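Quick one: structure for this chain?
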Amino acid sequence: MSYEEIDHTADWAFRVTAPTLPELFTNAAYAIFALEGALDVQSTTTREVRVEGIDRQALLVNWLNELLFLQETKRETYQNFVLTHFTETELQATIHGAPSQPTTKFIKAVTFHNLDIVQTEMGWETTIVVDV
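Got it. Here's what it folds into:
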C-alpha cells in the first residue's frame, strides 16, 4: 500500500499513489483505517458495498465516506478491499473487517478540499483531506 501523511493546517491530509485507478481507491481505503490505527485485527466480517459519483473525485469521496459510515454504524473497521466492479462513476466492492477496537485517531469525513486525482508517469496520485 502506498500512502503518506501530509502536514495540513486545519484538518488531516494524506497522499495516495497507485499504478492503476482502482488500486488508488483501494489504497485510499486502506490508508483511512491505517491512519486511524485500526488495522491490527484479523478480519471476521465481510460486507458488499456499492457507491456512485458524478465523476472520479465524487466517487472517491463517496467510497471513503461510505466506509466511514459503516465503521460508525456497524462498529467495525476494515482491512481488505476487493473491487469487483469499477468505472469512473461507480464501484462495487467486497470489504473485510472486524469489530472495532480503540483507534488512535477518528476520521469524521472525507472532504472535497483541494481534491484532485491525477495520472502521473508512475500511475495515479491524489491528496485527500479529512475532517477529524
